[in-house]
Amino acid sequence: MSRELFCDLHIHSCFSIASSSRMLPSCLIEGCTTKGIGVLGSGDALHAGWRDLWKDTPDDDRVLVVPTVEVEDRDRVHHLVILDSFERCEDLASLLAPHAANLAETGRPHIRIPGSEIAGMVHDLDGLIGPAHAFTPWTSLYAAFDHLSGCYGDERPDFLELGLSADSSYGAGISDLSGIPFLTNSDAHSPDPSKLGREFFGIAVAAATVRGVMESIRAGQITMNAGFFPEEGKYNRTACTRCFRQYTPTSAASVRWRCPDDRGLIKKGVSDRAAELADAPPATRPPYLHIIPLAEIIRTVIGCASPRTRGCTLLYDRFIARWNDEIRVLTKIPVRELAAVDRDVAQAIESFRSGRIRLSPGGGGRFGSFSFF
């Protein structure tokens, strides 16, 4: 009999650029428990120091840790790699070392070979590989190529990660992606509840093991995806990367992709890029649950500048103390029960569950925003 687990397989470590010093195994395990994530990607598993930290961390029955890493290839495409052990990650590091100058220094190394060669090495190690944040206009599959084969050649990817500015509908009409599972992950650089697990996916597994998770992904046994409303992502709309003024593709082309206000570069948004690639009727995909992190809901409701303020943290902790994890609070607990902790937050959760939310789309590198009716 299979069981459903919630997974976040793309994170980074304290060894990655712009990551929190609190991205440590103990903080991540506790963060996943609070969030309701049962399967966590280790992140940065080609880094020897990070592997050692995980090896020194006792197994915890609450969270299954799957060895993962993000790499950048010759064409600046980012890939998420999943392997079945840290020993396999060490083997991959040895294979990639001749092609990477910074393998020992950073959690997300640059590999000076094409994606097809990296994928071949990963598949030879019985691992999984797929494009990370595939639609993002920087360092992604669809920033560099129009088709999977342009990046992967004959090495067909095992999955595709959607990214914060896209949901399943963005790839459902691309025939090239037929049969490829979509994953949603946080790409977190901080263990804070507004970052870790902000996007995740459900999976049906026969065995709650690393191999069990990998086999379920390979077989496409994804039960659901969950994440931002795409408009909240910072590259959803075509926009100037300096002033964030938004454009249609036609108007951007008419000014040669340079903003007439400040000469900033105009970047094509994920929504426009996905529409450009669509070539078939939308295929049926597992349900996509649009969610907003509880900490961000609380911040908006009480009018704080940051979800890390004392007022936000205290109220967040009251919800978790009552119902154990955030995903349950956001998706399962009746609103009338949530109101016993805070009526205004309960009403906001009811609003996003029913789609009564105002979205101001992001673009050009600035996140979108939301408000409640």
Report what the structure shows:
The chain has about 375 residues and is α/β, with parallel strands linked by helices. The chain has three domains: about 5-230, TIM Barrel (Alpha-Beta Barrel); about 235-265, no CATH class; about 295-355, no CATH class. The chain has 15 helices and 15 strands. The protein has helices at about 25-35, 50-55, 85-95, 115-125, 140-145, 150, 170, 210-220, 250-255, 270-275, 295-300, 310-325, 325-330, 335-340, 345-355, and strands spanning about 5-10, 40, 65, 70, 80, 130, 160, 180-185, 200-205, 220-225, 240, 265, 290, 355-360, 370. Strands 3-2-1-9-10-13 form a six-stranded mixed sheet, with helices on both faces. Strand 2, helix 2 (about 50-55) and strand 3 form a beta-alpha-beta unit. Helix 11 packs across helix 12 (about 310-325). The mean pLDDT is about 95.
Secondary-structure map:
Layout: E1 3-8, H1 25-35, E2 39-41, H2 48-55, E3 64-66, E4 68-72, E5 78-82, H3 86-96, H4 115-124, E6 128-131, H5 141-144, H6 148-152, E7 160-161, H7 168-171, E8 182-183, E9 200-205, H8 210-218, E10 222-227, E11 239-240, H9 249-254, E12 266-267, H10 270-277, E13 288-290, H11 294-302, H12 310-323, H13 326-331, H14 335-338, H15 343-353, E14 357-360, E15 369-372
Parallel strand pairs: 1-2, 2-3, 7-8, 10-13
Antiparallel strand pairs: 1-9, 4-5, 5-6, 9-10, 11-12, 14-15
Helix pairs in contact: 11-12, 11-15
